[in-house]
Design a protein that fits this description.
Elements lengths: L2 H42 L6 H21 L3 H28 L9 H4 L10 H34 L5 H30 L1 H9 L4 H6 L1 H42 L1
Helix pairs in contact: 1-2, 2-3, 2-5, 3-5, 3-9, 5-6, 5-9, 6-9
Length: 258
């Protein structure tokens, strides 16, 4: 029995104990999303495949699994899904612009020694690969943020049916502002925690601060963090606006039915 299996069992028990059926579905969703990621990587190995398009489809599928499989079909999940897709498409424009202008695609000079035995002519567009990596690393945070805004907005509407669209939107923005600060910090420390070894490596190489900041490896991580933060900032007004619109439209539909 491996350590990974024991951890998986403990995770399943805790998620089921705390979340009940929804916790169990969340556990299953982890493996479904992992399968989507693996299939996406396999398809990307085809030289004729476009990594950005594949990542967009994978992001939509991951969003569907995370939202509709775990939280079921409803107004809050529909608006969260739409907000995720809209935010992802807008963010993709920024990501392609940043990766192209910063020239972070490909390998850094620190990695040349390890790659020396291999051919670098692999027939892959590293600009698109870099954009796909950033997009895939951001999608989880965007999904979390959209459902974290749409769900309480639906509760507000449920307990206060007469609230107008503008007030509901303002409530969503207020919720989003509270989440934004903590989520941005979470991303920041998650990336830096994962790349603590990289910083120690730079120290061993006796890099100056300027060399560290301008290195391709470090710059790519900064763009990862910046793109994720931009995605979350964009997701807040988009989610609040879509949720307010759909909930208000749902109310109008009910009024007309009587």
């Amino acid at each position: 029995m491996t350590v990974q299996f024991i951890l998986a069992v403990i995770l399943f028990i805790l998620m089921t104990a705390v979340g009940g059926k929804k916790g169990a579905r969340s556990f299953v969703a982890l493996f479904l999303n992992f399968t989507v990621l693996i299939l996406s990587i396999i398809i990307m190995n085809n030289p004729g495949a476009n990594p950005v398009v594949i990542t967009l489809f994978a992001s939509a599928l991951i969003s569907s699994i995370t939202l509709f499989y775990i939280s079921r079909w409803g107004t809050k999940t529909i608006t969260a899904f739409l907000a995720t897709i809209v935010t992802t498409c807008i963010l993709l424009v920024f990501i392609l612009l940043f990766t192209n202008q910063a020239m972070i695609q490909g390998f850094g000079e620190e990695e040349i020694e390890e790659l020396a035995p291999y051919s670098l002519y692999v027939g892959v567009d590293f600009v698109k690969i870099g954009a796909a990596m950033i997009l895939m690393s951001t999608i989880g945070a965007i999904i979390d943020l959209t459902i974290a805004i749409s769900s309480p907005m639906q509760e507000i509407k449920h307990h206060n049916p007469d609230i107008d669209r503008r007030s509901l939107f303002a409530s969503g923005m207020s919720i989003g502002r509270d989440i934004l600060g903590t989520s941005a910090n979470t991303l920041f420390f998650a990336f830096f925690g994962g790349y603590m070894g990289l910083l120690l490596w730079f120290k061993d190489l006796k890099y100056s601060l300027g060399e560290i900041v301008n290195s391709k490896v470090f710059s790519s991580e900064m763009i990862f963090i910046g793109s994720s933060a931009i995605g979350m900032a964009l997701a807040i007004p988009i989610t609040a606006a879509l949720t307010a619109y759909f909930l208000d439209k749902k109310k109008l539909g009910r009024n007309r039915s009587y």
